[in-house]
Every structure is written in structure tokens, then in C-alpha cells.
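Obj: model holo form, ligand = adenosine monophosphate.
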Amino acid sequence: MTQCVFSGSPLRLFNSLSRQIEEFVPMDPAQARIYSCGPTVYNYAHIGNLRAYVFTDTLRRTLNWKGLAVKHVINITDVGHLTSDQDEGEDKMEMASKTMERDIWQIADHFTRAFKDDLAQLNVWHPTLWSTATDHIQEMIAFGQTLEKAGVTYELETGLYFDTSRVANYGALASASLAGQAEGARVERIEGKRNPSDFAIWRRSPAIGKRQMEWLSPWGPGAPGWHLECSVMSLKYLGAPFDIHTGGIDHREIHHCNEIAQNQACTGRDHPGANLWMHNNFLIDRSGKMSKSKGEFATLTSLIRRGLHPLAFRLLCLSTHYRSELEFSVEILAGQLARLKRLVGAVAALQLKVENASWKRIPREVVYSSGASLSYPRQVLEASLPPEGDRIITAFDRELAEDLMTPRLLPLLDETLNHPRLSPEVKLRLVASMDLVLGLKLLDVHRSDLSLRPENASLTENEVLASLTQRQEARKNKEFTIADQIRQQLHAAGIELMDGQEPAWEWRPFLL
Ligand code: AMP
Ligand code: ZN
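Output (holo C-alpha cells):
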């Protein structure tokens, strides 16, 4: 490996394989290569899924922040993912098609588009490449044949299976042994499987009942296994080995163990395929881990309908470290929205004071959309900072470099905005630089953009604000009866107020 010198603190990331934080050294000193497991497009993404992509986006922005270009691939799983990750049940896509009575390809297309829209609303950069599973069937068949030649597969009536006892250290990523899996295994439903952890490389179509998605293969007509897809697409586009593989923590237990087994067998190099395996923890709500198969779940659109802006959700994700569980409730999110409004308001006030700063003439696209390198604008933004500004941005870099400690970045943002001695121009430059990583659009979004009108609201934002001003006046003049009347009128219109010294929010529609 070639040594890469990052600017600032060395970047250290948690590797699920070693269960340790390790210094990150990209294989190519100019570019990091990342693969992220993408969505299974049989339904809308829930906000737990979206947490996974805010995490990868933060990782990608961090690598750019450190001066490294990134090649990022996200796949679209439109075939092969069964209702249980452990290779049991029905294909989620085929099942959705039956339930929704819609053509399977239309379903895939509809939910892929919806997913990409969600990412755009969260200001998550699109990857360098989207790769769709069904576009890679021939490569998957060829990969299966290589595995067959390597002697790690066996054929059953139901298809071609991977024999997990044929690779070294199967399950190391999950810290699970084959023996352990056998003991804890659920009732095995596939006749003839040699080990409970063995999984399908190719699933042969049943003799009766044709699948909508099926292809011819040396093992009969059928469809590829889900784990195969990610091995094929990651190695095809990023080479073997590549730098970082990401996914939600549920993938650490089965999906990624199986990818690793395939990669080891295919390359014959006993290498897991990626040097670093990173996993975000779950988003949970009161009922536990959010999951699509539960049927009822929160989507970004359902939050927008309640007047909760997507960027508030991004802020919520950043406020918790990616390896910790993120607790979600509408109340908590409303608190983050109020926090975001305050931040945007403070930045807008600074912008009024700094009209003609030269760095503001840098085209915004260079700052926000280039996946290649952000080091030029960052250098401009941080050029000749006074010592206090330098201290803050150095601390920001240090926290970020320590396994993406985003919750510690936000107080540094507050400190910048409230700093008694830094000039407005320096403050703005610091905020612009920090926002390259935070992605909250702090300089681009207006406070009013964040106030979405909830579907059930009978008042506009301006009407609410006018009533609030009247109420403040009344309170100042000690006309408490009038103030109470206004509160009651707002209450009747579905608006809740919060009083107090430093309320977490000022007003909001009734959320629950
Ligand atoms: P899926 O569409 O189910 O294939 O999942 C897409 C991504 O979301 C994967 O990386 C999952 O590991 C991740 N994921 C699923 N559920 C959650 C959750 N509740 N919280 C965080 N990430 C999740
Ligand atoms: Zn995957």
C-alpha cells in the first residue's frame, strides 16, 4: 500500500472486521473506493434505511474533506433478496408484485426513483455509479461458475449453494463460528443444505409457477442470490481488494459474511474483498428497530406531510454517532428542526453583514456537487484564518477524523456562530467549510424553506408568525388575557406553543 498524507489529523475509522478503530490508508493515494449496499426496491425506503445513506454520505464527504477523491458505488437490489436474510422465504420483489398487483419491473422503477428523490432531499450526493442487480445477471452467472470451479459450491434441487465450511474463518465479521450458527440455527427449510449458514448462489425456479424475473443459467432457469449481487458488482467496479464496504449493522451478521466468503473463494486470495467494513447502527422508534417488513414505518414523505423538513432529519442523524442506535420520535425530530432553523437564521444574519466576500464568488457547484475533490474550496475558505478560527477548524477536523464523531462537530458550529470575537466574515467562512461535511445547506437554505406546511394545518406560516408577534406584544404589555386568547386560537387551529427562557422550539403543529 502506498502511504497517503492527509491534511490535518490522520483519518481513523472503525473496522467491523477487527472491531477496532484503524488508521485509514487508501490503496490509491489519490482516490478511495467505496461500495455501499443499496436498497431493495420493493417499497419506499423508511427513515432507518435513509440513515444508512446519510452515514455513507458523511463518510464520502469526510474523505473529500481530507483531500481524497472518491469512487462510490451504490447498488439497487431489484432481484434476489428474500423475506429472510438467511435465505428463506419468498423474493421480496415477487411478493410485492403479487400484493400490489403491479408488474415487477414497474415496481422496481417506481421505488428506485422514490429512493433517489429521498436522497436528493437529504442532500446526499449521488454515487459515482448506481449499479442495478438485474443489469449484471451474466456477470453473476460467470461468478457462480468461478465459485463452482473453486470447489466451494454444491447443487440441490432448488439451486446452487455455497458451502460455507470450505472457506477459512467463515463468519469472522459477525464473530460467529459455523458451530455456533449450527447450534442456534432455526429450522432448516431447504432440504439437503450441508450447513445451516450455506446460502444460494442461484435459485432455480420451481417447476410450477413461473417467476416474473428469471434467466437461463447452467443450473437451470432461475434468479441469482442476493449476496452474489454485491460481490459481483463491487469487485467489477472497484477491483479486488477495494477500500471500504458499508451497510447497516444487520448486514454484518449474514449478508456481508457471505459476500466475504464469496470474495475469498473467487479471488483465491483469502482476502475479504474490502479492507474496511463499516456499519451504521439502527434507527429505532418506540416499537424497536424500524423495518419495511413490519408494514408501518416512517418515510421521508410522511415526515414532510407533518411539516418536518428532510434536512432536520439529516441533522438528527448527525447528532448521534453512526455506531450508536439513533432514537427517533416525531418530538425529537421537531426539536432538531427548531435547532436547524436557529442555525440557518444565525447564518442568514451573518450573510447580511458580509455582502461581498471574495470567496463567495466561488461557484457553489464546485463546493457542493463535485465528487472529485473539495480541497480547493476548503483551502480558500480556510485561508489565513485568525488563531481562534484556526483552533476551531482544527478541532473540527480532529473530531471528524476520529471515526466521524459528528455529534462533537455540532457544538463547534454553535461555538463559531456565537463567538464573541470572530468577525462575521471569518464565521461565515468557517461555517461554509464545516458545511462541506455536514451537508445541511446552511448557506443556501432560507429559514422559510424549512417551514413546510403540514398537510393538516389550517394556517400559513406567516399567519402563525403574525399571531405570535401580537401575543409577544400582549405579554410585554402585561395583557395576559389577550395573550391567552391568542394561544387558544392557535391551539384551535392545531398549533402548539412553547414558552420559557430558551424553549427547544417556539411553535409547531400538533404532531402526534
Ligand atoms: P434494504 O432496503 O432493506 O436492503 O436496506 C437498505 C439499507 O438500510 C441497508 O444498509 C440496511 O442495513 C439498512 N437498514 C435497514 N434497517 C435499518 C434501520 N432500522 N436503521 C438503520 N439502517 C437500516
Ligand atoms: Zn449488499
